[in-house]
Amino acid sequence: MDISSLTIDIIRDGLRSRRFSAVELASEALRFAEAENPKTNAYLRLAPERALGAARAVDERIARGEDAGPLAGVPVAVKDVILTKGFTTTCGSKLLANYVPPYNATAIERLEAAGGVILGKTNCDEFAMGSSNENSAFGPVRNPVALDRVPGGSSGGSAAVVAQGTAVVSLGSDTGGSIRQPASFCGVVGVTPTYGRVSRYGLTAFASSLDHIGPFARNVKDAATLLGVIAGRDVRDATSAETPVPDYSAGLGAGVKGLRLGLPREYFKDLTPETGAPLGRAVDALQRLGCDVRDISLPNTEYAIASYYIIATAEASSNLARYDGVRYTSRSEHSETLSDMYRNTRGEGFGAECKRRIMLGTYVLSSGYYDAYYLKAQKVRALVARDFARAFEEVDAVIAPVSPFPAFKLGEKVDDPIAMYLSDIYTITGSLAGIPCMSVPCGETPDGLPVGMQILTKHFDEATMFRIAAAFEQTA
After folding, report:
1. Quick check: 368 pLDDT over 90?
2. What confidence tier does 334 reach under pLDDT thresholds 50, 70, 90?
3. Is 199 in the active site?
4. If you average pLDDT over residues 139-159, what whole number do you get?
5. Whole-angstrom Cα distance, residue 438 to residue 461?
6. Of 217, 245, 236, 191, the residue nearest 71 (C-alpha)
7. Parallel, antiparallel, or unpaired: how do β-strands 397-401 and 450-456 relate?
8. 154 is an active site residue
9. Which of 10, 82, 223, 232 is found 20 to 30 A from 266 (Cα to Cα)?
């Protein structure tokens, strides 16, 4: 059984026709993941007992003639910032190396209720802070397309397992591009849904007003199916939306003739040929499908990076204050006073990037600087959102690059945080606006590195986004 070629539809058909059982599939997926993972370090740990138990439950439901769910038997991987009851969740940090959550995230509950089989937890930048997956306390992830390259971050492990074929689909989290950029770098589909579309209950908080949970897959239909499973209102998350969740898969074949697509000139003016050329060919393909492509402007784009790194670090400073050695983190053993224990625990436990962002966030929230930085950044955020609202008055979707460049080499940017932060220049705007965005593979550079095309639509219009992605996918 070739795990790397499976899709949700193939698995569903195989279980119905009894070509294989869910237990056989899970066993083979675990074996393959264990054999392949040393190449990439994408999994932090596998969960054989949990996976085989879920697979047995699927087989029993099928044997009884029951509907086993839209993800029945599907091997899934989960980013290690999403809580899994009874199974370690580290957030890529030494501070939580032994933390076992007492409850599941809502996304995990819904995934397993739909028949999904969780194979294990994936590596990520510490507390989801990074753009290369080199900030994990448990070592970097290598891009399966080119092992000397980064997979992107912070959800690099979740993108890598799908690209490597050691999971059929996976869950990641996105705060400023942490799903879309790894998807682009690894050549897979990655979706950041509208803020509030998927419950954040059980997602370890980085920047609460920006955090999303979303899917990775090898094709658009599988991504749409997984999002449909995990989306919807959750009373345990006050920010989750009441908006009904449509059947995303049902509209994938509707075609795109007559749809108006906007190309923001601010996103294309400095794009390098190696990423610009594949994206240009993708736009040409959409035009041949009948789309009306036009230039638009998102004038406040240039202020997005500064705004994001003030808001996100401020919220991170607040959210990460709880990791102090008192409750559920590891604790420094080299302290004589309580204040020393706090200081030493955080100093020894947090990595360099987390410390950098905590310090930045604490500074912009400090007395005398709040209005000058945090309040001003929130005003800029409103301007960025207004840019998109005006754009969607004249277009149905925005087409843009995901990253200024393809996957870079391990170690290339790790000592230059500004260069690293600028890799998110095209993804941060959608995050600030809270709109749905996704990356779909659109070609390769001359060196064979994947390039993604970003599709952005208005709030809660994931259906149009998937429709465009599916139509383009058929031309590839």
Report:
1. no
2. confident
3. no
4. 98
5. 12
6. 217
7. antiparallel
8. yes
9. 223
Q: For the residues of 60-110, what is the DSSP string, one character each?
A: HHHHTT----TTTT-EEEEETTB-BTTB---TT-GGGTT---SS--HHHHH
User: 328: burial class by Cβ within 10 Å (0-12, 13-18, 19+)?
Assistant: middle
Assess if residue 141 is contained within a domain: yes
What per-residue confidence (pLDDT) applies to 116? 98
Q: Which of 50, 67, 66, 52 is nearest to 22 (CA)?
A: 52
Strand 169-174 to strand 212-217: parallel, antiparallel, or no bridges (unpaired)? Answer: antiparallel
Mean pLDDT on 166-192? 98
> In terms of DSSP H, where are the helices of 231-351?
265-268, 273-288, 304-319, 338-349
For 394-435, the pLDDT digits (tens) are 999 999 999 999 999 999 998 888 889 888 999 999 999 999
CATH of the domain at 185: 3.90.1300.10
Is 17 an annotated catalytic residue?
no
Residues 6+ apart with CB under 8 A from 2: none
Q: Which residue(s) pair with 296 in the sheet?
A: 264
Q: What is the pLDDT of residue 367?
A: 82
395 burial class (0-12, 13-18, 19+ CB within 10 angstroms)?
Answer: buried
Q: How far apart are CA 10 and CA 447, in angstroms?
A: 32
Mean per-residue pLDDT of the chain: 96
Sheet harboring 437-444: ordered strands across?
Answer: 43-46, 117-122, 75-79, 169-174, 212-217, 189-192, 437-444, 450-456, 397-401, 260-264, 292-296
Tally of domains in the chain: 1
* Alpha-helix residue ranges (DSSP H) falling in 188-295: 220-230, 265-268, 273-288
Catalytic residue (one of 79, 221, 413, 458): 79
Residue 457's nearest CA partner among 405, 407, 397 is 397
In 3-state terms, the chain is what percent helix, strand and coil (to 5)?
Answer: 45, 15, 40
What pLDDT score was predicted for residue 13?
A: 96
Cα separation, 55 vs 373, whole angstroms: 51
Q: Which two tokens stand for residue 389?
A: 């609202």
Mean pLDDT within 138-147: 98
- Domain assignment present for 89: yes
- The active-site residue, picked from 131, 132, 154, 240, is 154
Radius of gyration of the chain (CA): 21
Give percent of the chain above pLDDT 70.
100
pLDDT band of 311, cuts 50, 70, 90: very high
Residue 366 lies inside a defined structural domain of this protein:
no
Is residue 196 in a domain? yes
Cβ atoms of 309 and 317 closer than 8 Å: no
Q: Which of 93, 178, 403, 439 is catalytic?
A: 178
